[in-house]
Write a structure and sequence with these properties.
The complex is a heterodimer. Chain A is of the alpha/beta class. In chain A, 36% of the residues lie in helices and 12% in strands. Chain B is mainly α. Classes of the chains: A alpha/beta, B mainly alpha.
């Protein structure tokens, strides 16, 4: 494996996402965190503020506030936005827009956020959310955000995986509800979730195919591309990715973010993923620990990571406390 | 039982089928349409529906290269944001 083990090889993180609550009005099967009405976990404000300050000190200048549904923790959501804006950070808010029961209601809620300094906002639009939320609410929220002049408005949907309806949902927004989405950024993501993994609905590629394919199965253009986001979970766990399929790299109650990132440099398994991709890690684990990841099929790198790290033995593979996780620092 | 989006899906694949459904009350009742949806549909030319949806498909095909693949959808790993963020964690950590 690599001998380069200096701090200069630490990955760059461009964004830190705060999962401020698991509570959500709805339980969607594709939800990374199994959020829902029965979940009551909330990120403590002190922990959120302390972590935000550490992130600021690391010169990560963009934060994303999400959940669960962040509007269900409206005080914490507002406080985080105010604090991040006071640090000069750009804030992205991700919401399902359940609260946009009318355009007036949407204008009222979003104008407060605009005044707090929020510039980027992102609305979920997919089959699962639409089972619970009328598309008219997404339209109300979009219309209000456009009218208020948010700098960046995104629709987060999916035309892959389990649904082919995204384009028709966009058609409905434009042609039936009359929302001009020309200047709205559309994110078309692969559907990945624990439940879909279990159903094997996306299990299309062998490991060899996954390594070669350059289509939507690859979440990145080059090695390390997808490890550019820090995700701070409600309980303080930190992930080096936009979701918790990958293993956690530490917990903010045990270490500061700076040390957590620094320690990655000495984690053999993280370096394999970062310098190559999860396929190489799968091959390495099969070879050294007699696993059988190479024999299975996967829909994407994300799914492969999930299969590896949801295994109890490997959940903490990316922390240096794991028995396999450390490697000796070379001199 | 379908909905408006199911009906549009059908219309895109076969524009004539939409015309046939709109003429047939029994078939139409299989779709849960609001009065405004029905009104809008009657005013639409199926060929236009097909053209508009194909336009959206084109947009999505571009989006899939520009901003796809981040399963969390926060888009952090895409070039746009990376280009905007000039400072690095490297220098801050080391």
């Amino acid at each position: 494996m690599e001998s380069d083990n200096t701090p200069n090889s630490i990955p760059n993180f461009y964004l830190a996402t705060f999962i401020i609550t698991y509570k959500c009005p709805f339980s969607c099967p594709m939800c990374f965190f199994s959020c829902g009405p029965e979940r009551n976990e909330v990120m403590p404000k002190e922990m959120a503020f302390k972590t935000l300050e550490e992130i600021r000190n690391l010169k990560i200048s963009t934060v994303c506030v999400t959940g669960g549904e962040p509007f269900l923790q409206i005080d914490l959501m507002h406080d985080l936005i105010i604090k991040a804006v006071s640090y000069g950070m750009t804030v992205i808010l991700v919401t399902n827009a359940f609260w946009a029961v009318s355009k007036e209601a949407a204008l009222e809620k979003l104008s407060i956020l605009k005044k707090l300094g929020l510039k980027w906002i992102q609305f979920s639009l997919d089959d699962q959310h639409l089972r619970f939320i009328p598309i008219s609410r997404i339209a109300n929220a979009l219309e209000a955000a456009i009218e208020l002049g948010f700098e960046d408005i995104k629709i987060l949907g999916s035309s892959k995986g389990n649904t082919g309806k995204f384009k028709y949902q966009l058609f409905y927004l434009e042609k039936i509800l009359g929302i001009c989405i020309d200047n709205v950024d559309i994110i078309d993501r692969p559907h990945v979730s624990n439940q879909y993994f279990e159903d094997h609905e996306q299990a299309k590629f062998s490991l060899q195919e996954l390594e070669k394919t350059e289509n939507s199965a690859s979440p990145a253009n080059k090695p390390g591309d997808c490890l550019t986001e820090l995700l701070i979970d409600v309980n303080g766990d930190v992930y080096p990715c936009c979701n918790n399929f990958i293993g956690r790299i530490g917990n903010v109650y045990n270490n500061n973010i700076k040390d957590i990132i620094y320690n990655l440099n000495y984690n053999h398994y993280f370096n394999i993923i970062w310098r190559s991709d999860p396929c190489k890690l799968a091959r390495y684990l099969d070879k050294t620990l007699n696993t059988d990841f190479c024999d299975k099929r996967y829909g994407s790198w994300c799914e492969l990571c999930a299969q590896i790290f949801q295994n109890d033995s490997f959940r903490d593979l990316l922390t240096n406390t794991h028995p396999y996780g450390c490697r000796k620092k070379t001199n | 039982m379908g909905d408006f989006i199911d009906l549009i899906t059908k219309a895109k694949d076969d524009p004539n089928s939409l015309k046939a459904i709109l003429r047939d009350q029994e078939k139409l009742s299989q779709y849960e349409l609001s009065s405004s949806e029905l009104e809008a549909l009657k005013k639409m030319d199926p060929a236009t529906i097909k053209a508009v949806v194909e336009g959206i498909e084109d947009r999505l095909s571009l989006a899939s290269k520009a901003s796809n693949a981040c399963s969390g959808g926060t888009n952090a790993c895409r070039a746009r944001m990376a280009a905007e963020m000039a400072t690095t964690t490297q220098e801050a950590v080391s």
